[in-house]
Write a structure and sequence with these properties.
Strand content: 5-15%
Radius of gyration: 19 Å
Shape: globular
Helix content: 40-55%
Number of strands: 7
Order of helices and strands: HHHHHEEHEEEHHEE
Structural class: alpha+beta
Distance between the termini: 25 Å
Length: 268
């Protein structure tokens, strides 16, 4: 899952154009921020065992990006790099939705990333992925298919199914939804609470600094709601955070949602 999240974000950035239209600019800026921030990352988690990130033998057997703390560091670097180029909130919303749409489709259709099996001298990007490589990752297609309806009960079931899929792929420890409450104007209100998303450290740091957080699960749900004819707005906050003590006890992300019927919305 870490590999697919990082790769999908990178794919969206490279396709975005605009501030990243110059070939290699996004990757150059990302590499620069990663190098500059790595010393602080090691100091921040000096009491944690990060030896696997430097053990060459272990690196042959396990992708370092699957280390939760290192993945969160890379994810934070990604979105700080993106924020430098995509400064306006409206554009950040558009980019986030684009990433969510890509991930939503990968959930429905399945996705496999990693080095390709080399056959002959020429590299073939369509060759099968070498699943024995520690750098590979896979999301199987969601089965059975999501409900096709757009009633509150359908959307509640679909949301549960999507989050359960992400939980099984290791994205989060657990999640809850409130009931989807219909209003007279056709809008729906509900709350979600996602416990220990895999990039919690990056999310909490970027939210506290009023930066550009990834918000992967919210963006995936937004894409699903759009696919069912609903525009969605949300406000989120860190959950489990102690506001009176200096100690951090963040455990997840709580989100308040409002869905509005929109016959013109959909996925491109």
């Amino acid at each position: 899952t870490a590999v697919i999240l990082l790769r999908t974000t990178q794919e969206a950035a490279l396709d975005w154009g605009g501030p990243f239209s110059k070939p290699g600019l996004y990757q150059t800026n990302f590499n620069k921020k990663r190098t500059e921030g790595f010393a602080d990352f090691k100091q921040r988690y000096a009491t944690y065992d990060l030896s696997a990130l430097f053990n060459q033998i272990e690196l042959l057997e396990k992708d370092p990006r699957t280390n939760r703390l290192y993945f969160s560091f890379l994810n934070e670097v990604q979105f700080r790099t993106l924020q430098d180029g995509i400064k306006r909130r409206a554009e950040q919303e558009r980019f986030g939705f684009n990433v969510g749409m890509r991930l939503y489709r990968k959930i429905l259709q399945g996705d496999t990333v990693g080095p390709r099996i080399v056959q002959g001298d020429a590299y073939d990007p369509k060759a099968p992925v070498n699943m024995s490589s520690p750098l590979s990752g896979q999301w199987p297609p969601l089965s059975p298919a999501l409900p096709t309806g757009a009633l509150a009960t359908d959307l509640a079931e679909g949301s549960q199914r999507l989050m359960d899929y992400l939980r099984r792929q290791g994205y989060c420890k657990d999640f809850t939804f409130s009931s989807f409450a219909p209003e007279k104007d056709g809008r729906l209100r509900f709350e979600s609470n996602v416990l220990e998303p895999v990039n919690l450290e990056a999310t909490s740091t970027l939210m506290r600094s009023r930066g550009f957080p990834p918000r992967y699960h919210q963006r995936i749900l937004q894409a699903y709601f759009a696919d069912r004819g609903f525009d969605s707005e949300f406000d989120d906050e860190l959950s489990g955070e102690s506001k009176n003590s200096g100690k951090s006890s963040v455990s997840g992300v709580r989100t308040k949602w409002v869905l509005s019927p929109d016959p013109d919305i959909g996925l491109d």
